[in-house]
Every structure is written in structure tokens, then in C-alpha cells.
Amino acid sequence: MRRSLPILVLGSLCVVSTALATTYMRVEKDGTKTYSDRPIPGGQPIDVQPAQGYSAPVSSGNVSRPEPQADTFRYQSCAVTPENDSTFTNPDMVPIAVVTNPSVRPFDTVILTVDGRSVGRPGTMSYTMTAPLDRGTHTVSVTITDQFGNQMCSVTSAFHVMRPGVNSPAARPHPAPH
After folding, report:
1. Which of 17, 56, 93, 108 is the most exposed place for a label (fewest CB within 10 A)?
2. Rounded CA Rg of the chain
3. The CATH number fitting domain 77-162, selected from 1.10.260.40, 2.60.40.10, 1.10.760.10, 3.40.710.10
């Protein structure tokens, strides 16, 4: 405590002396002005007004942000093609499309996934799977959310890709009728 008292007193004196310092100004031959906190030859003491400050208005404390309005909009229908349980045999491509009624609003976000991976950018309404298409079942999903992240539509469809092998009965040529 004894060591900090002289430091505190010295610091206070520096602050007070700075606040009470006199400013001197001298006009040079070329018309420019020179300012100093020490007397300068030909300088005159001037009265410097304190800097202008700004005080923020007092908050009432009852400021609340408006809550988003409840969105009563609903899509009448939301579908994805190919239809659920469709089958494709040896396809070179499978077109995928999202269809809504009414059309997707500009501020809604559409996410299209194929086999759990997003395809295209958000907002993609169609996509084409191209060869080589793996045999088996593939899943297509679409989710549409509004600007607040509320889910407006969600639909999933599964389709099948068949690739018969050489020994498969479907791949064997049928004899021509006699």
C-alpha cells in the first residue's frame, strides 16, 4: 500500500497538469500556425475549448425486437420425380425434378439430395443422374424451408436401377416364333 500511494499521487498530478496545461500559438511568416504546450518565442497563450463529446441516449430497457410474423403460407402440393418405386432398366440417365404448387417463393430454400448427398446449389429444382448408374435402389429427397428455417415441404422418393447380367433371363434373346 505504501508503494502504490506515491504512484497514485504522481499519476493524479500528471492528469491534472495535462488538463490545466496552457496552449500557445504562433503565426509564422507564411501564415501557418504553430501550436505548443510550452511557451514559444512570439507565441500567445490561447483558450482551447474542451473537445465535443457524445452521450448516447438512455435506453428505456424495454426494447424488444419484432418477432417474425407467423407464416401461414403452405404449398398445396410438393412432389419429386421419378415417382416412388419406379424402376429403370439399363438407363443412361435418370432425370430428377421438384414440382410444387404454387411455385417456390424467391426467399424459400430448396435442398435436393440424391442418396443423401446434396446435388446442385440450394434452389436446384432439377438434376440428371448420368451413366454409369449403379444398380440398386436410389433415394431422392427435397426439403423446402422458409427464410426463418421453418420446413415448408419435404418429400422423398425411391427408385430402382436394374442392370440384368449376361446370364439373366431378361438378357437372353428370345427365340423367334415359328
Report:
1. 56
2. 39
3. 2.60.40.10
